[in-house]
Amino acid sequence: ERWMHSLAELAERERDPDKFVVVACHEMSSLPWLAGVRWQSRHSTGVEGEETSHPTVFVFGGLTLTFYTEWAASPALVLHIRLLARLLGDYYEAKQREQEQRQNAYVQAIYETGSRLTHDVKNLLQTLRSLCSAAETSSEADADSVRLLMQRQLPQIAQRLQITLDKLNTKPAASLDKISGVQWWQFLRQR
Fold this sequence. Notes:
By secondary structure, the protein is α+β, with helices and mostly antiparallel strands. It has helices spanning 2-13, 17-28, 75-137, 143-169, 181-190, and strands at 36-40, 45-49, 55-60, 63-68.
């Protein structure tokens, strides 16, 4: 029961599913009736404790857990181990879903930001084309009005370009996980 409470606390603290499994298996290996634990997840494999000739294997989603005891596990112990493994597996799957949702939100935010910035740039380009057209089609009699138009519009365009550039340089919200570009690309390709 103490280990289950510890597992629940760990689940609240650790956001990364693979780090969660590593720490949970490390803590689980200290249970007195358990000699060791082997795990294999999508991105992590490891062993805590000692591997004996009495393994009990459980598979939950993308997580494989092998529990080693010093003696052949009784049906009651197998049931107890299954409960612990199931709890660990459920937390692991929940962590994976949370991580995927965070990554999807991050990709969505990037997409939306890119769409808004593309829209801003298109509007600026349209304004510049209109000014160029006015300058190209004007006569010498219109030179003063075209000059005034340019004096009014060009600083505004420069300001709007600076705002768009500042948006590009803005760092993502602190609530988003920081991942490398390589990781982001791998996640995007997997999706």
